[in-house]
Amino acid sequence: MHTPTDAHAYLAAGLRLPTNGLDYTILAIYFVVVLGIGFAARRSVRTSLDFFLSGRSLPAWITGLAFISANLAATEILGMAANSAQYGAYTVHWYWIGAIPAMVFLGLVMMPFYYGSKVRSVPEFLLLRFDRGAHLLSSILFAFAAILIAGVNLYALAIVVEALLGWPQWVAIVVAGAFVLAYITLGGLSSAIYNEVLQFFVILAALIPLVVLSLKKVGGWGGLTRTLTRQHGDHFVTAWGGTGIGSANPLGANWLTIVLGLGFVLSFGYWTTNFAEVQRALSARNLSAAQRTPLIAAYPKIFIVFLVMIPGLVAAALVPNIGTSASGLQYNDAIPYLMQELLPNGVLGIAVTGLLAAFMAGMAANVSSFNTVFTNDIWAKYVVKGREDSYYVRFGRLITVIGVFASIGTAFLAASFSNIMAYLQTLFSFFNVPMFVVFIVGMFWKRASKKSGFWGLLAGTTAAMVNYFVIYKQGIVRIPTDQGANFVSAIAGFVAGAIVMFAVSLFTRPKPEEELQGLVYGTRSPGMAEPAAPGDEAWYRRPALLGWGAVVLAALCYIPFSF
Amino acid sequence: MPENSGFSEKDVQREVSDLEGRSATAARIFDLRRIIGGLFVLYGIIVTIAGVTDSQAAIDKAQGVNINLWTGIGMLLLGVFFLVWMKLRPATPPQQDGPAEERPPS
């Protein structure tokens, strides 16, 4: 999910890490392996499907870990730690209610339609279900958003690298951009996904020691909660404390906006329609593996919150005035600060490598979904149609190069105009919400007409933006924080999109039933009938069991934080 | 050679099915477990050695824990796990045989 706090990680000066040759050796080895994966994956690219979707042939454990890794970008890691330092244990909502139900819904309910219809992208599904208007609008918006987010990631990387390692910003931007460019151009999505899986383990190796040591420093979980309760009050270490409607809490949201805005609209919008995520599942080798992709990802997601929240809480306990100028530390500095305080050379190198890997993977996920949408959905459908397949592989490589250069440009722009970038990011974050309305109505209501997709998308996006930028920012309705306003805007966008789709459908002709096979709930397409692969009937691979298991586990996790 | 530009559901299914038939990923992609296993064994060895030779200052910094040693051992075990997994359950050759090509070097 988009980082709730300001993604522009302004790190305080004085966070320079005492890195030595050992740490740099560890970092260098990682960069060599990243490039090696690109070169080795190159020979697996024969068709455009290989380049953009790994030939729909990867096993579920790989796509599942890539699914979680594409989300676990460094802006998310630093941002969620910052969120915890600022708001406390409310952060768990972004994981347990703000991710798990949506991931399970994607796997169990939506994936048969996505994967079974053989679409190559999320916009392509809209093309089949609705019409070219919805398709082109969503493709163009997605392409812009992907480049923007890739650029923001790159800029955030440059700031962190400058603060931690002392490299000039432009060096970090160019080096990271060049590596991402090289491995995606060479190996396409396979090399992006393989690197994401590798990054997942490096990030764990970086965060687990940090969490163990930070807990030890504050006297364990008990010591931590005692200190925080004394400093910040009772609600700081609970999930629901102070979220009654009308009562004040630091998050500026009540249980209803948390459940509906974050848990339903924002979360479902992000996890089920963001192509940078869904693409990982579409590259799985069969329907069962595609369904299991988000479900396998759900289990680490449940527990990753501890790895990002605990450092944030510990930083808040150790530096009570974090986030104010008196401490010289920003909320975003929580993890770098603890790395500097606690990690000796060696593990420090692993942690630096993990952070850089996470930044690069966040950028790569966006670049690899951008090139797919731009080539398949924009170029091949509307610009240069009907060429041989190898042409589109060449074009995909070319547009990857252009995409990376555009992200580098965006990163430099962000460096000069960071306010505009923050504004743009908020703007695009509202785009997922109407996407989700259009999907959910289109998938469950046969009567939704061809035209309704485009107008629903447009109306929902507009409503969310108007609510945020006019009604909230101009102070027409008072909402205490940006986060709270985000949740409310998401709900507004959802409702407006749904109403407009309904109204337009009433006045336009429905799509003929035979064109909806496998796209609407209650129909089946030939792709859904494929036989199960050997071994997939094992009980631990049953999607329903995996999915409901994750939901139950997330609900159980709430218990210690609720009383 | 089908066109990559159909707009209907049938076009997309035909295109993608055809591309799946010619796809080379399943047959030629290397086993990721080898890379993860190799990298983590290497990292594990490096960090474990750092832990064994760590000065008292490094251990004091880490709250009295020899964190390099423990992390190194953990990474080593993870690496070994992936290599053993690969040994015990080697990647199955692709079921739907595309055009017979040379197998990946293993």
Automatic annotation (TrEMBL), chain A:
Q: Which domain of life is it from?
A: Bacteria
Main location (coarse class): membrane
Query: What Pfam families does this protein's entry cite?
Result: SSF
Q: Where are the transmembrane segments?
A: 24-41, 61-82, 94-115, 136-161, 167-186, 198-215, 255-276, 297-319, 347-374, 395-417, 423-445, 452-472, 484-507, 544-561
Keywords on record: Membrane, Transmembrane, Transmembrane helix
The protein in question is named Sodium:solute symporter family protein
Under InterPro entries, the record lists: Na/Glc_symporter_sf, Na/solute_symporter
Task: Look up and give the membrane topology term.
Answer: Multi-pass membrane protein
Organism encoding this protein: Streptomyces tropicalis
Q: Where in the cell is it found?
A: Membrane
Automatic annotation (TrEMBL), chain B:
What is this protein's name?
Answer: DUF1206 domain-containing protein
This chain's source organism reads Streptomyces tropicalis
Superkingdom, natural source: Bacteria
Q: Where are the transmembrane segments?
A: 35-53, 65-86
The alphabetical list of record keywords is:
Membrane, Transmembrane, Transmembrane helix
